[in-house]
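Appendix C: a fully annotated inverse folding record. The material below is reproduced so that readers can follow the format used throughout the book. The structure is listed first as tokens, followed by the designed sequence.
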């Protein structure tokens, strides 16, 4: 959808909401892809969303609801006070409703479950009992199975009946079970339709690949990849059919796993940011997901500082026999450079990976580039401020323990501590800015943002950090000594 088309649809949607025109609302849904309408609705205020949805038929509203972002779904579900809202939720497939309930406060969940028919409530409780990384947590239990004793004509009749009653999703594959509901085979819809109507299902079904409810979702993703399938049946420990998962379900899992692995490389806590799109994740959550690793890196880099410091001090003392005040100060200062550089470069890499991922998943539009750069710069400044304060305290303790600056003028001591801390603040701010700006500039010129090597980010941020620490410390020593 082009930018001009999107603006036209936004204006049309706003007019429908203002006038509350039922006919136009339903025409709007009929004439536009549901995913596009959902994308527009995601950007509206809650009050506007609550005005638009009741204008639609309940079935259409439920389908549109299923396309909305999780956060929007959660906000809407908590705002449903009328029977209409509860009816909308009941139109959702059980797995879709379970996903919504997981995000809601317990009192709201209880209210919705109380409105839910007993049979469906049992299904929901079962789905909610599985761990987040288990196949059972993402499966659909609204499926149509066929008995091996059926004829093809009977099987088609059951498929039609289940679909009309909305007891099952319409899919390409249908699973064959025996009298105890154990999974024994699979047939495609075409195989059932074009077979002799009197042919027994038991005579024509094919072998079936399946996964267990307690299998990890990564295993299901691997099975999909190996067998090139669009759906997979799910069985319990007795091999009884309990549900199915689609390739769409697994695509989400693969995306989450890839994101988690990518974030681990950059020292980002994926549990803080993995659920939301980049621009919809508050800056403080992004900061929280990154800051711990940067603090640990700064503290662990003290080991490098000690090695450089005492190694250079030993060499200087060996050559001069007596280390001078100047050489002591210079050595102590030089040992700080790898500490500041490593922290700065990792900060830039974090921003680069986050923005690259968001660009690859189309979470960032062209008109949002400036917003992204500003967001990363703000995160860089605040994380830089936190780390500068930690660095200030760290160096105070460090130099007190090493005691090699006791013979140095106090102002040199303070110049090194203050200069390196300010350099850390500025270099982290700049590194976040550059980490975000580089992939955006590449995207602006229609180049692949992922082609920017993190080594390039590291090299540039190292240069900037080194220049800052030298120039600031030199300026402070010149001013006060």
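Designed amino acids, in order:
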């Amino acid at each position: 959808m082009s930018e001009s088309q999107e603006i036209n649809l936004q204006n049309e949607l706003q007019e429908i909401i203002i006038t509350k025109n039922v006919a136009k609302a339903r025409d709007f849904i009929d004439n536009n892809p549901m995913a596009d309408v959902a994308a527009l609705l995601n950007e509206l205020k809650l009050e506007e969303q609550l005005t638009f949805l009741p204008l639609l038929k309940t079935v259409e509203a439920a389908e549109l609801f299923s396309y909305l972002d999780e956060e929007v779904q959660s906000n809407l579900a908590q705002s449903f006070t009328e029977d209409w809202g509860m009816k909308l939720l009941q139109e959702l497939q059980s797995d879709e409703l379970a996903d919504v309930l997981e995000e809601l406060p317990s009192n709201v969940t209880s209210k919705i479950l109380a409105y839910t028919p007993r049979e469906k409530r049992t299904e929901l409780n079962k789905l909610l009992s599985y761990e987040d990384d288990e196949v059972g947590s993402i499966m659909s239990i609204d499926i149509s199975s066929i008995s091996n004793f059926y004829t093809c004509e009977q099987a088609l009749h059951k498929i039609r009946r289940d679909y009309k009653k909305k007891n099952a999703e319409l899919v390409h594959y249908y699973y064959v079970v025996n009298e105890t509901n154990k999974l024994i085979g699979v047939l495609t819809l075409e195989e059932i339709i074009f077979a002799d109507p009197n042919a027994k299902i038991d005579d024509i079904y094919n072998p079936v690949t399946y996964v267990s409810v307690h299998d990890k979702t990564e295993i299901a993703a691997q099975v999909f990849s190996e067998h090139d399938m669009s759906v997979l049946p799910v069985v319990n420990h007795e091999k009884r059919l309990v549900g199915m998962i689609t390739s769409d379900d697994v695509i989400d899992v693969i995306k989450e796993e890839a994101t988690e692995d990518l974030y681990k490389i950059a020292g980002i806590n994926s549990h803080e940011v993995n659920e939301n799109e980049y621009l919809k994740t508050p800056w403080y959550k992004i900061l929280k997901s990154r800051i711990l690793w940067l603090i640990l890196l700064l503290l662990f880099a003290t080991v490098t500082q000690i090695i450089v410091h005492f190694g250079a001090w030993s060499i200087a003392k060996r050559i001069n026999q007596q280390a001078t005040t100047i050489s002591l100060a210079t050595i102590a200062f030089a040992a700080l450079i790898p500490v500041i550089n490593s922290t700065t470069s990792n900060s830039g890499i974090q921003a680069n990976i986050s923005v690259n991922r968001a660009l690859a998943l189309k979470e960032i539009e062209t008109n949002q580039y400036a917003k992204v750069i500003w967001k990363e710069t703000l995160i860089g400044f605040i994380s830089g401020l936190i780390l500068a304060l930690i660095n200030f305290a760290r160096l105070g303790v460090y130099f007190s323990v090493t005691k090699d600056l006791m013979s140095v003028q106090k102002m040199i001591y303070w110049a090194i501590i203050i200069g390196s801390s300010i350099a850390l603040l500025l270099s982290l701010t700049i590194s976040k800015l550059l980490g975000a700006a580089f992939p955006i500039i590449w995207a602006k010129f229609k180049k692949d943002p992922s082609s920017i090597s993190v080594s390039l980010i590291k090299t540039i941020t190292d240069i900037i950090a080194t220049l800052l620490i030298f120039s600031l410390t030199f300026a402070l020593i010149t001013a006060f000594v």
